[in-house]
Amino acid sequence: MLLIQNIRLSRILRNTWHIDLIMIASCTAAYFVREYLIAHHFSIPSIIPTVLGTAIAFFIGFNNNQAYDRWWEARKIWGALVNDSRSFARALINYVDEDDESVKRMVCRHIAFLYALKANLRGTVDEIYTKYLTEADLKEIAKHNNTHNAILNIQSRDLQKLSKSNVIDGFRFIEINEMLTRFSDSMGMSERIKNTIFPTTYSYLTKVFIWLFVVTFTLVISQDAGPAAIFLGWLIGFVFVSTQINGMSLVNPFENNSAGVPLNQITRTIEINLLQMLEEDEIPEPVKPINNEYVL
């Protein structure tokens, strides 16, 4: 997630330089086609790029709006995980006084759940969660394809054991179990966002229309601007392409890039909070911003 208010132009150019080169080549080709092939036969009506530009603006606006909705929903889900995680640990620590070992085991297991979920959403191999699990937990989890769901299942079983041993009463059992249900809901909503592909036709057609607009705009403007039409065509195209790329960078909010939801930071923050609530001595350092620009 970006932390800075202003983005350097050099950073934008680093992300778009290959497309910029293609646009310049396209504008150059369009200029020479118009200059040497069609200039003396007919002229391109200016209404064509005008209509195309208006249509593309609607396409890009819609795509970016939907992409931001996906990103914001993902951020709200993990914001809820932060709140629920603290409440879960606080309830266990303060409601289960007679079984401190079980409390510590369940709180640490929840940290493992978060790391396992994060690794799944980002499609990475992250074994950090294993240090918060017992050997018995690891053996049971190995039988499941969905690691984080298996961890929740173990949590529910241990909570049931606490209830049967009368360590917690029925009301507190229901309250803590409700938190486990919310963890499952957040897990499912995160997986839904990850597994639901943004409609391919939306982004594909937008790209096609942008290239068509850049070419037709260059053809029209070259009638009056001459060779400068190459630069003007690239400049207008750069605005549309940059805006479209900006929106598409939010389509997959769990990707490990500067535009994604900062899962590393959020997970580490929860980890620190919960370990401090357990009064542990070894507390990891918070995740630091990269180049003071963004955090992962």
UniProtKB/TrEMBL annotation:
Main location per the UniProt record: membrane
Topological category with respect to the lipid bilayer: Multi-pass membrane protein
InterPro entries: YneE/VCCN1/2-like
UniProt GO MF annotations: chloride channel activity
Keywords, sorted A to Z: Cell membrane, Ion transport, Membrane, Transmembrane, Transmembrane helix, Transport
Localization of this protein: Cell membrane
GO cellular component, one term: plasma membrane
Transmembrane stretches, start-end: 12-32, 38-62, 202-222, 228-245
Similarity comment: Belongs to the anion channel-forming bestrophin (TC 1.A.46) family.
PANTHER family: UPF0187 PROTEIN YNEE (PTHR33281), VOLTAGE-DEPENDENT ANION CHANNEL-FORMING PROTEIN YNEE (PTHR33281:SF19)
Name of the molecule in the record: Putative membrane protein
Lineage start: Bacteria, Pseudomonadati, Bacteroidota, Sphingobacteriia, Sphingobacteriales
